[in-house]
Amino acid sequence: xxxxxxxxxxxxxxxxxxxxxxxxxxxxxxxxxxxxxxxxxxxxxxxxxxxxxxxxxxxxxxxxxxxxxxxxxxxxxxxxxxxxxxxxxxxxxxxxxxxxxxxxxxxxxxxxxxxxxxxxxxxxxxxxxxxxxxxxxxxxxxxxxxxxxxxxxxxxxxxxxxxxxxxxxxxxxxxxxxxxxxxxxxxxxxxxxxxxxxxxxxxxxxxxxxxxxxxxxxx
Length: 219
What we know:
Layout: E1 2-5, E2 9-14, H1 17-28, H2 80-91, H3 115-145, H4 147-165, E3 172-179, E4 186-188, E5 193-197, H5 198-202, H6 204-218
Parallel strand pairs: 2-3, 3-5
Antiparallel strand pairs: 1-2, 4-5
């Protein structure tokens, strides 16, 4: 994560591991447009894993010991898609996302109240984690190589707005989650949080064009 701003305003940028994993599991499990808003599929794509004969997602049996339930706040009951949405809501929120990460193999106790999701995470964890490690490493490298430009994309736009208003920016906070999505764009996912496609973040003029009206609304 890197942070730009002053005592009055702050913009953070990150590629959160838990969010990468949630979307990787979504695509591998064939959950489609689950989530609100529905984010595009990931790129490079992760093909859904299904059984050859029935098209159903194979379920990994859980041991009796792992089915001792405690309240973890990630959703209880409902469909697999509902359970995944509850995970997404936590993964996308910097204030609710645990610093140590949500996923702890082999049993992923955070999902003890979401049986179907727990089984799907166990099933897809290795493939999802391998994919997420590669994408996160790519983000870190891009951030290091282009830090000055990316910082300027944020600071310059805020300063432009301050000059236009002839005053300093008031308080605001914005968290940008940069993700490898198959379609360019940005999606508001929380009060302070916007998901930005890596392709938009890498295109400095396009990013600034998108960022200016957002800053105008915030400052």
